[in-house]
Design brief:
- The protein is an alpha+beta fold.
- The protein has helices spanning 13-25, 41-48, 67-77, 86-101, 104-109, 124-143, 155-169, 176-186, 189-200; strands at residues 2-6, 30-33, 56-59, 62-64.
- The protein has two domains: 2-79, Glutaredoxin (3-Layer(aba) Sandwich), CATH 3.40.30; 86-193, Up-down Bundle (Glutathione S-transferase Yfyf (Class Pi), Chain A, domain 2), CATH 1.20.1050.
- A four-stranded mixed beta sheet has the order 2-1-3-4.
- Helix 1 links the parallel strand 1 and strand 2 (30-33).
- Helix 1 packs across helix 7, helix 4 crosses helix 7 and helix 7 crosses helix 8 (176-186).
- The longest helix has 20 residues, at 124-143.
- Bound molecules: glutathione.
- Glutathione (GSH) binds next to helix 1, helix 2 and helix 3.
């Protein structure tokens, strides 16, 4: 029995990633949404996981509290969520870790907000950070035939999807190769299901609307 606890679909980029992974894995799971940054919300999160954050996966009695750990867990249950080639697999894992830890200037200036469309310019720091990310994606795409970072869909593409939404929301320029890749991610049927649910939410987190 799997239960994936997630945050607001409009805002929670960390939640989107393992949700996409579990969908692609074909593992049946229940999803429970915990509204973020509301009174009492943190207590609910702490009752679910010592980390006090979403996503968190409950598997029978086990608690797995991080987007990459949940994805790794799914990859142990189901083949082909990482690239088959060993060098590609290591590169995909490193890229996911980098997508978690790096690009903070871009993430800070452009929080995921699926409803948002703005042309207000980002700071140079944020644009430099976005350009480094684009370069990392372009490098992978240049070594493979596509349409995904490592040819077939992998966990790395789940981790890239919230970034694709940020490029669209904040009108960040990018080259044709990466733009085509982002279009592929944003046309994915599981992503579109998530996006539709996000659009139906009416919760507003002001802090993520005014950046
Ligand atoms: N490294 C964690 C980050 C999780 C995280 O920061 N989640 C945010 C939501 S997107 C959260 O739960 N924030 C609520 C809080 O910190 O109170 C992961 O990859 O799962």
């Amino acid at each position: 029995m799997l239960t994936l606890y997630i945050g607001n679909k409009n805002y929670s980029s960390w939640s989107m990633r393992p949700w996409l992974v579990l969908k692609k894995a074909g593992l049946p799971f229940e999803e429970e949404l915990i509204q973020l940054y509301v009174p009492g919300g943190k207590d609910k999160l702490l009752a679910l996981s010592p980390a006090g954050t979403v996503p968190v996966l409950h598997v029978d009695q086990a608690v797995i509290p991080d987007s990459l750990e949940i994805s790794e867990w799914a990859a142990k249950c189901v083949p082909n969520l990482w690239p088959k080639d060993l060098a590609d697999k290591e590169r995909a894992k490193a890229l996911c870790k980098q997508m978690q830890d790096d690009f903070t200037a871009f993430r800070g200036a452009a929080p995921m907000n699926l409803r948002r469309r703005t042309t207000s310019p980002l700071s140079d720091d944020a644009l430099d950070s976005a350009a480094r990310l684009e370069e990392a994606f372009a490098d992978c795409l240049g070594r493979h035939d596509g349409p995904f970072l490592f040819d077939d869909w992998s966990i790395a593409d789940a981790f890239a999807t919230p970034y694709a939404t940020r490029f669209a929301s904040y009108d960040v320029p990018c080259g044709l190769k990466v733009d085509t890749y982002f279009s592929e991610l944003l046309a994915d049927e599981d992503y579109l299901q998530w996006e539709m649910d996000a659009m139906a939410e009416d919760w507003i987190i002001e802090a993520f609307e005014t950046v």
